[in-house]
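Bug #77: duplicate submission created two jobs. Keeping one. Sequence:
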Amino acid sequence: MKLLHKTLIALCASLSLTGCVSILGDHVRFTEEVKLSDGKVIVIQRHAELTASGFPVDGRGFYKYHEICYPPMNIHWKSKGGYRPDIFDIVDGKAYMHVPISGCRICAFYNNPPTSALYFVWENGAWKRIPHEEFPAQSEWNLLMQTTGGVSRSDDPRGLITLADKTTGKWIDSDLRYSQQYHGWRRVNEDPDYVRGSCTKCKYSFPTPKGDMELFVDNVNTCKR
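Kept job's structure:
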């Protein structure tokens, strides 16, 4: 392992910085202002890791995981790349997370939930899955979904992403905002009737998949540096 590490360092010395990132991995770190359903604004830590594209190509791979931390409550979330939360809320002292899902394979693994989403509450230092009815009805989309700048790492979010950045600035997600304003619905995945239930549509066409489809990665907290 030490020999491999030294070899990579030697390669980095002769390649551009972006080339080194592709070899060693691709990390995006920033902090984000989040408005809760009671109007309070908090700051959370965000971290995403992408797979390397492979030497010698300098590109970006797939998401390995999404990480969210809220130190005041010792909250830590770490989900696989295919599961990206869109709501983090704190109601009556309890923290909640909302995760939209799509694709028949994932839907089937979670028994095709009719809202095409998974719901969690933070209890006793861990995330516990709860039914849709127990998730706060007033919670609205509040997490930045565009967690990379695309092909260019120089365009990745960094530093503090404010509420203004997400509503009128560079990091506004125009598709999500337009849908919310036009349709008047609160949770991103719980669309109007004519497009609701992507998981329900898979119910009779896809068997329960085998293999590891669990949402969470290891519980190692890498938010703080």
